Structure formats: structure tokens, C-alpha cells
Amino acid sequence: MNFMDQFNGKMQASENNILAIGELLNDSTKPLKERFRALFTLKNIGGATAIDQIRACFKDPSALLKHELAYCLGQMQDPAAISTLTSVLEDLSQEPMVRHEAGEALGAIGDSRVIPLLEKYCKDPVPEVAETCELALNRLRWLNSNDSDGDIQHNPIYTTIDPAPPAKIEDANVLRDIFLDESKSLFDRYKAMFSLRNLGTKQSIFILTEGLKAGSALFRHEVAFVLGQCKSELSVPALRASLENTEENEMVRHECAEALGCIGNAESYDILYEYLKDSQRVVRESCVIALDICDYENSEQFQYADTLAKLSTA
User: What sign for the dihedral angle of Cα 40, 45, 51, 53?
Assistant: First the structure.
């Protein structure tokens, strides 16, 4: 959830504070938005205790929350999280969007020891999981190539660890051809996607919105994620159309809701309120979180993940 990554520097916290934040994260009686803020605070703190607190929450019934747990573990890039993410990927009782995020997180950490595991799950019967593991494998191969410059992603603005590096192309028309060409590998199409994001022009935004009607559910969900990062009001009509489409994969609809939260304009508010009672739990919960992000985007708060600050002043 890119728009929760507003502050990526490491926080300083005592062991007791980390445990208190973890207690909030794992308390199912607390509002979901408070638990999300606790989660992203733990991500920004990092370290073994924070990872342990996140690990404990994978028993929660909320697929959305568990998806974000896996996302945060990947963004932390700490090999100590590999065992937890492996267990989640291997657990067939976990929802597909949770297993998918665990596979992506393993790729984000960048440790080549997980290659055999990812190779195994490239054959998973769930398309979103199989495609994610293929992408993660390609990212690891890229990291180990002479083309990677280590783990530098060449993103001028964005600090997230992406499933693929941006393509070394700046011509939007050339990028569009790659991005929408379903005969190309998913990895190459993702590279074009992140280059379009980095361009940040009106043309590139409109090209990205075309991707919401193309490819697999995994591809479309990543397009929505990227549009959320871009924060352009130009993308609101396309995101709204995908959210309103009840035949669309819930993983895509959830990401569209969160992208609207990142954009945070008046139209986004109205759309999100409308879907607070959606029939799909993950969409309802995404709207709750997205509205909280809207409030953040329109406030003077320093950062979204402010749980530690609240504990310090309690």
C-alpha cells in the first residue's frame, strides 16, 4: 500500500514501545485503521521484534490486513522475515491475495536462497500466485545480473521496492506498446509500467489507465497500485469504473479503492463512501482504510504511520 509509505526512514523505539504497537496491531477489537497505522509504524521501526509482532498477526481473519502484513515484511527487506513469508506462501488455507503478496515480498527481500521455493510455486494452480512467483524470480535474476546496479531501482520519486525495475526507455509511445502487449513477458510489461509511472506526464497517466482493462487480474491490480502512487486526478474515472465493476477480481477492486484514497480529492471521498457497504469484505475494508488515507492526505500530519508518536505522548 504505497501511500502508507510516506515516511521510510527508520524510527527509534524502545522494546516496550514496539511490543505496545504490536499489541495494538494484533487486537482485533481495535478499529482497522488504527491497526494499519500500527503495522506501518512497525515497518518503519524494523528489526526482529517488529517482525515478530507482524508475524503473530497472520492468524487474523482479515485478508486485507494479512495482505498488508506480507507487503510490509517485503518492504523491510530483512531476511529474518523469509521463514514467515515462506509459511504464508505454502499455506493453501490463506487467501490468494495474501499468498500472492507473500511471494512478491520474497522477491522484494532479494535473497537468492528463495529461488527453489519460487520456482515451485510458479506452478501454483492460483494464477495470481503463480504469476507473482514468476515475477519475483525474474526480479531475483535481475538483481544477480550485470544490469541491476545492485538493488538501485532508479526511481526519482518513489521509494517502494517494486516487483520490477523501470525499463530504460523514456518514449511513452514505445512504453505503451510494451505495456499493453500481452505476448510480452509480465516482467517486461511491469518494467514498462514503472517507467510510465516515473515519467509522470498526462500521457503516461492515460496510458496506465488503459492497463486497467488489460491482462490478468495481477497485472490490473498492479496498475491500480501504480496509479495510486501517481496521485493524479486524471485517473479517477478509470479507477472508479474498475471499483464499480462487481465482476472484477476483488484484488483489483481493493487496489482501486486504495488508489482513490491516495488521490484524496472530493470525488474520491464520494466514491469510497458509496462502497463502504460493498458485498466483498476486502473492498469494504479497503474503503475504510482509503478514507483514513484521504483524511491524512488532506491534513497536516507529518506521516501516516504515527502510532509511535501517539504512544510517546500518551
Answer: negative
